[in-house]
What does this fold into?
Amino acid sequence: MSTLKDMSAAGCAVWLDFVDRKFLEAGGLDTLVAEDGLTGVTSNPSIFEKAMGHGEAYDGTLAAFDKENPDAATIDRYEHLAIQDIKAAAETLRPVYDRLDAKDGYVSLEVSPYIADDTDATIAEAEKLWHAVDRPNLMIKIPGTPAGAPAIAATIAKGINVNVTLLFSQASYAHVAEAYAMGLEERVKHGQPIDRIASVASFFVSRIDSAIDKAIDQRVKDGDAEAEALKAIRGKVAIANAKLAYQWYLDFIKSDRWQALAAKGAQPQRLLWASTGTKDPAYPDTLYVDTLIGPDTVNTMPPKTMDAFRERGTVAETLTADVDEARHVLAEAERLGLDLDGVTERLVEEGVASFTTAFDDLLGSIAKKHPAKA
It folds into this structure.
């Protein structure tokens, strides 16, 4: 059995953080589903920029669209291409979705990063993309910004599956988990079904260590008196943060509020571990997979990380292990003034900015391929 299948059997679903037309047409996704038990796909502006902005895989489709829609805006041309890929991935995953009775088998499409701070625009775009793709196993990605939380509740209330992205802090995660519950409660209030609505909360991991470790390294280099204590938690803060977020999840699903929804068939909003590629070569390349395996979770991996885990990953229920140690790590981070709250707040802003830049580059590449604008 594949190591990735073993991980799924342990409760952590395997998703691919990658979409590319050539990969889809060559049957790459079909192979991962068949051989590795893959049950989901995520996309974002950076992924689509790499796929569409380089090479010629999309040129024929774009030329045909331009011929029929000569006055189309660049954003409409992008959406036409993206929606085709998302539909293709959704079709590949549809048998998984059916077999698992809507509990998995999802593909995610993100709203524009340009509207990350606009609740009403996010709700409107989520609904537009949902109807454009028209597949039950679609998830609309909405960032977990302050403006995103009410949009999440409203979108769930409309019966649209949501992947909440760019979560870094436990507080932000708790906020969007409650928004998911609010959306379900709104449906219950109006007598609408909730048993086939799904959501994941994408909790980013490696970027936290990248930021915290950079601060640690600088302080050690400067001869900080707490150098040994700082080095002792290097590379451990992100995992500790994720483990305690999962502890909050375990408490929440035991609550009377959630149990009332579960009695009506509600599916829990699974924590999804994102940004799981290792960025520091000093760490094992499977670090953010090996250490976060537990029931009712998802790990979305770029192809390189998935290959590494297939070859040398270790499967064990690690997510609920050493929780007291995780609390100690975060307590030390606070004592040492590493400002995890400030770091996570900044990472959300940087994440939105990064996706916005990628979206700018993507739209720029597509605009250059328009005969009238070349």
Remarks:
- The first strand starts at residue 12 and ends at 17.
- Strands lie at 12-17, 40-42, 106-110, 138-143, 162-167, 199-204, 270-274, 297-301.
